[in-house]
Design a protein that fits this description.
The complex is a heterodimer. By secondary structure, chain A is an alpha/beta fold. Chain A has helices at about 10-15, 90-105, 110-120, 170-175, 185-200, 210-215, 225-230, 235-240, 285-305, 315-320, 325-335, and strands at about 5, 20-25, 35, 65-70, 85-90, 120-125, 150-155, 160-165, 180-185, 250-255, 260-265. Helix content of chain A is about 30%, strand content about 20%. Classes of the chains: A alpha/beta, B alpha/beta. The complex binds flavin-adenine dinucleotide (FAD), iron/sulfur cluster (2 copies) and FE2/S2 (inorganic) cluster (FES). The site of one iron/sulfur cluster has 12 residues of chain A, from helix 8.
């Protein structure tokens, strides 16, 4: 796979070469940042860390129409997904989350919507040179320049971007850009490695997950679950905005005679999530729901797919209104083991 | 069989016949349905214990046990208790109306493994729905099994499902069929008492026997206790779990009991395995 250089002055030319594909990049105010289609001539905001809304929205939209129909009719119209898009500036942890969630969405049978979006997308990553306050990707198998899930990785070298192709899709992008790019040399690769190491060294949060997946089931009745969930409001932020959370609800929406069946993000932190119609709820309080969230990510998913379903992006820590902190919970788990 | 290429797209099926099993606010209505598409009808291949997502477009879908055995013919049967939105809408259906069906989902009772053994089913209320196919399957393949005992109970005689069928079974010498209701009623000439007690009274031998139980959680708890008293080992006992479901195919995440997805790893569980899942009986 090739490595090329893009002079920052040539950024508009590079973007132009991607014509035909919709370009999504981080946009909006810092606090509201999410991936959205870039309008022509606009420079994407790449300098911030993680977007508030993870790019999972591009493969697993918050609301997705599964099919449309007319009440009383029999025809089911499945939306045609055909728009090719490039996601620019994806953080390595978020790209890794897609590689992790692929396991679930391909378990025995493929989720057609998710994989259609995946197929149409090219993921262009951006090496993290300034990790966020609550990043802990290096604890869970990732890193500031992790390539897993990405097609192409960009690294900011000051005046230039280093572009490394990872997959055929990434290679194709470099080819399409043609003479806008120059060949990269060992020097730039070395510089990238230096920046990556520096960034990794600047990651302040960490937890060693060894022993957690096997140990969690034994802590089922441990008082720690009461402790760590006591202040939880059940708002669902930690799961809605978690890049590896994939749970959804399915609902029919009717307007007049037109209707659609759609799926929407759901959260295991909500009471209704598991409640039976009879009113019986197998997870009646936040203690059980928090316990499930942590077990799901750090034990069940490992049992099923051999990988931790958390990429250490820090969103749940940054955004929880009552400062519930997954690294802190994991530390308490380790202590209780 | 996999359904459509897109597993969320349901098939249409027409209600051929429908009747009420029980009355009251939480009435149970049985639907005998046939797929509209002949190809689908031919390729559909479920095993006892599996479920299907049945529904009505514009209202939604519910996971319901397929309450017939494939040995009965090219149709499906569902017995639906009227609970909320979808089940209420399903109850409006009459013969000739259409519902949507996708599936079959989940694992099944390992009936091949049980060949040569005696099978005892212990059910309560709507819990008989997933076990009816076991009963029908063993009846249809009687020579392969060492007999069948069925214990089934409900609060009152009016709350028993499939009454007609069982009355006929109770007359059959080859089958040991025990019906029970909680409280004495006039003109009731079967057992009176709770299912777990009737189990003790029937006193099945654990030798070369498989016990299957479905019903309200409280009943299951005492049935399990009493099976132990009778000398049954954990791995001779099977039951099913019922968690809230949306997708049925291991994607929506909501049906898990511990590290098991009930829609794929279940709904049928061997008790020896189930005991290890901390959330299973929550
Ligand atoms: C494996 C399995 C097998 C089953 N077999 C059978 C069977 O054979 N027969 C049978 O009768 N039942 C069976 N059930 C139970 C059956 O699936 C439920 O009773 C049924 O889904 C209830 O649906 P409803 O739409 O009528 O209820 P509702 O409660 O009205 O649900 C409708 C929708 O409303 C929403 N909702 C419900 N309650 C709330 C709430 N409190 N707050 C917010 N939203 C809510 C949910 O999104 C739900 O999808 C089985 C279940 C499972 C898992
Ligand atoms: S659990 Fe928290 S840190 Fe881990 S991936 Fe999800 S949001 Fe990020
Ligand atoms: S974000 Fe915090 S308060 Fe909200 S559900 Fe998650 S842990 Fe609870
Ligand atoms: S019902 Fe969706 S995962 Fe089991």
């Amino acid at each position: 796979m090739s490595a090329m250089l893009l002079n920052k002055e040539k950024w508009p030319d590079f973007v132009e070469k991607l014509a035909g594909k919709t370009i999504w990049a981080p946009q909006g105010e810092e606090a509201e940042m999410r991936f959205a289609p870039v309008t022509e001539g606009e420079a994407p905001a790449l300098e911030y860390g993680n977007t508030r809304v993870p790019p999972k929205q591009a493969v697993f939209p918050q609301t997705e129409t599964m099919f449309r129909f007319q009440l009383g009719g029999e025809e089911l119209e499945i939306p045609k997904l055909e728009e090719e898009a490039v996601l620019l500036g994806v953080r390595p942890c978020d790209a890794r989350s897609m590689a992790i969630v692929d396991n679930l969405f391909s378990w025995d049978e493929n989720d057609p919507y998710y994989f259609k979006h995946r197929e149409l997308l090219t993921l262009v990553g951006l090496t993290c040179t300034e990790p966020g306050l609550n990043c802990f990707c290096t604890s869970v198998g990732g890193g500031p320049a992790s390539k897993e899930g990405l097609d192409l990785l960009m690294t900011d070298l000051g005046d230039q971007y280093l572009l490394e192709a990872i997959t055929e899709k990434g290679e194709a992008l470099l080819k399409a850009a043609g003479e806008v790019l120059e060949d990269a040399g060992d020097e730039q690769i070395k510089e990238k490695e230096r920046l990556t190491e520096e960034a990794a060294a600047n990651i302040k949060r960490n937890v060693n997950p060894d022993g957690i997946p096997e140990g969690l089931p034994g802590l089922w009745e441990d008082p720690l679950w009461q402790r760590v969930s006591a202040s939880c409001l059940g708002c669902g932020t930690c799961t809605y905005l978690c890049p590896t959370c994939h749970c959804f609800d399915i609902q029919d929406e009717v307007e007049g005679f037109s209707a659609r069946r759609c799926r929407t993000w759901d959260s295991c932190m909500f009471n209704e999530y598991t409640m039976h119609t009879s009113g019986h709820n197998p997870r009646p309080s936040r203690r059980e729901r928090t316990r499930n969230r942590i077990n799901h990510k750090y034990s069940y998913y490992v049992d099923k797919f051999d990988v931790i379903a958390c990429v250490g992006c820090g969103r749940c820590i940054n955004l929880c209104p009552v400062n519930i902190d997954i690294v802190d919970i994991l530390r308490q788990v380790k202590e209780a083991l | 069989m996999k359904t459509n290429e897109n597993p969320y797209i349901p098939y249409y099926a027409t209600v051929e016949d429908t009747w009420f099993e029980t009355g009251g606010e939480r009435a149970i209505k049985t639907f005998k349905v046939v797929f509209d598409d002949e190809e689908v009808r031919k390729n559909w291949n479920h095993r006892p214990g599996q479920c299907a997502m049945i529904g009505i477009l514009g209202v939604g879908e519910s996971m319901i046990s397929i309450s017939c055995s494939p040995t009965e013919g090219d149709f499906l049967r569902f017995s639906v208790m009227r609970m909320g939105k979808v089940t209420q809408a399903l109850h409006q259906l009459e013969a000739g109306d259409k519902m949507t069906v996708r599936g079959p989902y989940g694992n099944s009772f390992p009936l091949e493994e049980w060949e040569g053994k005696h099978v005892i089913t212990i059910g309560g209320g709507i819990g008989q729905a997933p076990m009816r196919p076991v009963v029908e399957y063993v009846k249809a393949n009687y020579q392969k099994y060492d007999g069948l005992t069925m214990i089934y109970g409900a609060r009152t005689s009016g709350d028993l499902c499939f009454k007609g069928e069982f009355e006929a079974m109770a007359q059959n010498e080859d089958l040991s069929c025990h019906l029970t209701i909680d409280i004495e009623e006039e003109q009731w000439d079967h057992n009176v008492g709770f299912v777990p007690q009737v189990l003790l009274d029937v006193k099945p031998s654990p030798d070369n026997t498989i016990a299957v139980t479905c019903g309200p959680p409280i009943m299951i708890r005492f049935v399990l206790e009493n099976l132990k008293k009778l000398g049954f080992e954990d791995d001779q006992i099977y039951t099913t779990l019922e968690n809230r479901m949306k997708c049925g195919i291991g994607k929506c995440g909501r049906c898990n009991a511990g590290n098991m997805y009930v829609c794929k790893d279940g709904p049928v569980f061997n008790y020896a395995a189930l005991k290890e899942i901390p959330e299973a009986f929550s």
